[in-house]
């Protein structure tokens, strides 16, 4: 209902609309209208109220409500169904809960705050209120489960492109799922899926971008390794514009991948943005620990690591730490 009332206010573009008119067109009591107007004010909407005239929307906050987002989205599928929460445990967890019951391909879940934001392998993802983009794209791709990791790679390209469009900042990618700026993490991507041996039931892509976060908003242990667009640019950006740019770019990259079944059109872009190509790294996973030099990233999205004996090892998944002056840094 809150969304519908906001729609009414917006459709009057700066003019007053009476409580009576809203209550009549939406079939709710005037007290309910007043209550929802107050909720919108709490969310940062500046709404003037005058006896006899009613309500007038003066200013909208940097909100990710679907009504705010829709004007900036120009896709056919991705984000056509948008769900927004002021607070959620995790947009990926929510997506998984609803996925089994069926969903519209391209559904996007967004939240202003996550109480249990998640990284890979059960790690936590700091998601302070109103300062980032915490979103999940829900997909039903007709691809082999083996190709799912390619979607992480193209997502990274799409997010970098969107960040560049909106903020002018050139970001790099640390294979497979980190977007970094000046050596610090700006965005993480968490791809999860439910699959049979040869087909995917659903694929969900969680994207967390630190947008208007100040250094002191990060938990102490992240302050040396995390950054945000605001910290790097020195300026706030409008989250809904970036969120829409991510959705728009994602659809373009994803459509290309689904049509060709390959990421060959994007791999050069991915490599150009790579923060680790040519560098000495350590790769760890639950089954391996290797050191070597990254010599390539294949069209399959695999890391090609040259080991000290000159042999090349292909790596499908793992954690990468880069060798710096003080040792290996994650
Ligand atoms: C990731 O995991 O980088 C994936 C993060 C995905 C977050 C999105 S937000 C929307 C959706 N819903 C979710 O619940 N998750 C997704 P990983 O590579 O495992 O990195 C996690 C590590 O990054 C943590 O252990 C911290 O060291 C660090 N970290 C946590 N929060 C961070 C933040 N906000 N910015 C930068 N680094 C962070």
Please outline what is shown here.
It is built from 9 helices and 15 strands. The protein has helices at 2-11, 19-26, 30-42, 66-70, 91-99, 148-167, 229-233, 239-260, 264-272; strands spanning 46-50, 54-59, 82-85, 108-111, 132-139, 172-174, 178-181, 184-195, 200-210, 280-284, 289-297, 303-306, 312-315, 319-324, 327-329. A 7-stranded mixed sheet has the order 3-4-5-9-8-7-6, with helices on both faces. Strands 13-12-11-10-14-15 form a 6-stranded antiparallel sheet, with no helix packed on it. Strands 1-2 form a two-stranded antiparallel ribbon.
What attributes does this structure have?
single chain; 330 residues; alpha+beta; 7-stranded mixed β-sheet; 6-stranded antiparallel β-sheet; elongated; binds biotinyl-5-AMP
3D structure, described in words:
By secondary structure, the chain is α+β, with helices and mostly antiparallel strands. The protein is built from 9 helices and 15 strands. Strands 3-4-5-9-8-7-6 form a 7-stranded mixed β-sheet, sandwiched between helices. A 6-stranded antiparallel β-sheet has the order 13-12-11-10-14-15, with no helix packed on it. The chain has a two-stranded antiparallel ribbon with strand order 1-2. Strand 8 (184-195) and strand 9 (200-210) form a beta hairpin. Helix 6 packs antiparallel against helix 8. It binds biotinyl-5-AMP. Residues 90-92, 114, 117-120, 123, 125-127, 134-136, 177-178, 185, 188-190, 206-208, 210, 222, 226 line the site of biotinyl-5-AMP.
